[in-house]
Amino acid sequence: MPLAFPFSAIVAQEEMKLAILIAATDQSIGGVLAFGDRGTGKSTAIRALAALLPAMRVVDRCTYNCDPDAPDSGLCEQCRERKASGPLKARKAQVPVVDLPLGATEDRVIGALDLEKALTRGEKAFEPGLLARAHRGFLYIDEVNLLEDHLVDSLLDVAASGENVVEREGLSVRHPAKFVLVGSGNPEEGELRPQLLDRFGLSVEISTPQDLKSRVQVVRLRDDFERDPQAFIDKYKRKDGKVRRQILNAKERLPNVEVPDAALERASELCMKLGTDGLRGELTLIRAARAFAALEGDESVTDEHLKRVAPPALRHRLRRNVLDDAGSTTRVERAIEELFGE
Amino acid sequence: MTDPMTGSTTDQTTDPNRAGLPDNSARWDDACLAAALFAVDPVGSGGISVRALPGPVRDLWMELLRELLPPDLPFRRIPLHIADGRLLGGLDLAATLHAGRPVAERGLLAEADGGVVQLAMAERIGRSTAAYLSAALDNGEIQVERDGITARTSARVGVVALDEGANEEEQVPHTLLDRFAFLLDLGDIRYREALASDFDPSQIQSARRRLGEIEIDEEAIEMLCGTALALGVDSLRSSIAALRVARSSAALAGRDRVESADVSAAARLVLAPRATRIPMPEQPDEEQQAEEPPPPPEDNQDEQKDQDQTPQQELDKPLEEQVLEAAQAAIPPNLLAMLQMGAMRQRSKSSGKSGAIQSGSLRGRPAGTRRGEPGAGARLNVIDTLRVAAPWQRLRRQERAEKGSESEVLVEVRRDDFRITRYRQRSETTTIFVVDASGSAALHRLAEAKGAVELLLADCYVRRDRVAMIAFRGPRAEILLPPTRSLVRAKRGLASLPGGGGTPLAAGIDAALALADGVTRRGGTAVVILLTDGRANVNRDGIGGRAQAAEDALASARAFRVAELKALVVDMSPRPRPDAENLAREMGAVYLPLPHADARALSGAVQAVT
Fold this sequence. Notes:
Chain A is built from 15 helices and 11 strands. Chain A is of the alpha/beta class and about 350 residues long. Chain A folds into 2 domains: about 5-55 and about 95-205, Rossmann fold, CATH 3.40.50.300; about 255-340, Helicase, Ruva Protein, domain 3 (Orthogonal Bundle). A 5-stranded parallel β-sheet of chain A has the order 4-7-10-1-11. In chain A, strands 2-3 form a two-stranded antiparallel ribbon. In chain A, strands 5-6 form a two-stranded antiparallel ribbon. In chain A, helix 13 packs across helix 14 (about 305-315) and helix 14 runs antiparallel to helix 15. Chain B is of the alpha/beta class. Chain B contains 24 helices and 18 strands. In chain B, helix 1 packs across helix 8, helix 9 (about 220-230) packs across helix 15 and helix 22 packs parallel to helix 23. The chains are: A alpha/beta (about 350), B alpha/beta (about 600). The interface between A and B is large, with 64 and 72 residues. Chain A: It comes from Lamprobacter modestohalophilus.
């Protein structure tokens, strides 16, 4: 694996960085979609995430990285059996960030029979796919809008249920597969199907910085990194460590962050004003605001938190409006201003 | 003699034979310089796209490049319709069955690690192939998750993309171009202008050794980024590529730090071909800039000559201006046309132009296979099904034996093995002309629109697209020509064209929307070309009155925008007023003023957008 560009060395792109941190703090947020211009560091930011995530506790020798503290329903078959005969042994492991490369075949994504064992030993064994590897972590799809339709269908199904069911060659396997879907792409290459769009909790629009100073900085840092990746990473180790501690603290604080009734009301009002479809928008907005408050070290959700996370939480859920020609970002911002504005 | 830093030849100034024709030898020299710089750092520069029809000039260029590339560098050719497995690697079925254990096949990209891959007919490669290449260029490795094989292999490559696109419609995918440092166009260079270059392989070798130590200061980076901004080159990848090229340029010239000549060369070779605006600091109004024709290429060359002859004068100018000027001289001359198309393409949000691509299982060009059951129109792909079944035969035979089944099955295929062919088809594009047939200019507009329809149909015969025409005048709009592919029918249908009367603009837009809606519903792509000056005087109900008519027109325009159709508003009046432009904005259409346009100009504009 080539060395990844450090997260803390990414210039500007504040909204994208925030969305990634929120997803790392609260994995139930439902994924991040980063859509935007070419060459803006979408993939860079997401790949940088892997190096940043704090370790998690997993069941020792479990293929699926089961959580030792999870209830039985959240465990794989083997772990359930193990648990029946005594407490589960835990170890620390890296949170997985799994790349779903374009051109991946369905058997590798979902999992299939182990070819090697079938050929050499004439044995039927299940070989877990990418979805198993991504359990409790992140599944990253670059150029998500170019993904084959039938793969998207399988992904949506698993993402919705949190469980992967494989029925093949008389083999019947089910295992937990809860992951944060992270997608990036360029809207010029094609639109995303609405069903897939809805799966993403946060949607970030990325554009190229237009001021000379940040552009020079991006080019300079990239150049430094390419000339000596290891030295560059070492240089940013402390800053990256700070971000890691921020995530850790936020995860700890998250269950205790309060959401006052006033904030709930505000969120409903905002969603009503924008006419977002369904409850998902409102729910994501509250969750994102809470995670953001936790990241900021605050104890309860305020208007400020809602204002910051409303655009990424809501902009991809707006219905097209006949009488309003403004882009969805502008519409969200206008609604925020009308509601919160002084 | 070629000065690699300015790219201009010293003997070009006084050749009487070349009078009258644009001189392209400077461009050839730039092409040679690009080849040399690419050879210095193929992986770092990502790639080079060479737009030219096959011929002696391109052959010469390729010969030069092959000569300059170090002989020990891997060089692989990627054929146009390469299978994913061959490109990325995957399961080697024959070897697997022979060995009785999975044997992975190395892909072409992995084989070319550290070297160069050459793409033939790059303008026709599939989106997925382009995406794999982009991933390899981004990560320097490929990740394979195919047919039971999981592997990561290093694939640091530089791409030479031979682009044989004949018109604007055929282009190398933008995802790839964005990752390439160099975009060359050898199109207009004549054979006798393609003189031998003086770069030799030993020069490249020593530059390659020196490359790692080249210093670059903040000022140089600022100059490159500033030039990129001034030229409207948005993607930061291009600025980063320009920096690497500047470094290669310094290495090639034997310097140990990047100097202004290197920055100029990088700006000219990397940034200028991607310019989306022509920098004119004294005219900050963007709209005016866009309408200003680009400076003719001859002038630029004069300018360059001047620069060569009067170095003193050049020194007086601020450095940034010099760099910008060098870049400006290399801006493609047809920038304006490309800009307008670019705007259209962005609006339509898909890079394809000949109709949206539909992927399905029934018709069109085969596009791979997937797991699934035949039936409901899906066709079984026998070869792929057998390929999938092959590795499992031993296991299944064993299972059969355990069950005590006696039957002699040679190859056991199970339902899980079924593979069906996926097809991909281009949906048909229907171009709908909506012509304002009212008032005195009606006859002119109608006649030219009719001419354009016929020209398009003559061309559509090749592309299998359809054309329709709606005219509006007096109280209502009328479909003069329903969507058709037949030139004969169009000629008959448009034989007599009534004109004159009031302008029911709203009715015209409504009719276009209704027709376009029908086209989209049947799975086609509709493009609406509205020919008007934007001034309405008849309202929706067919009653005269300017105010109400204008209001109705705007309401119709807004309804039109919601449908998100590709549309072009063409104003052919001799002195265009803002009405049509406003209308275009409300419709979400591209506005194109074409005073005194004729059928040919019109059909050209339409072809640029469809």
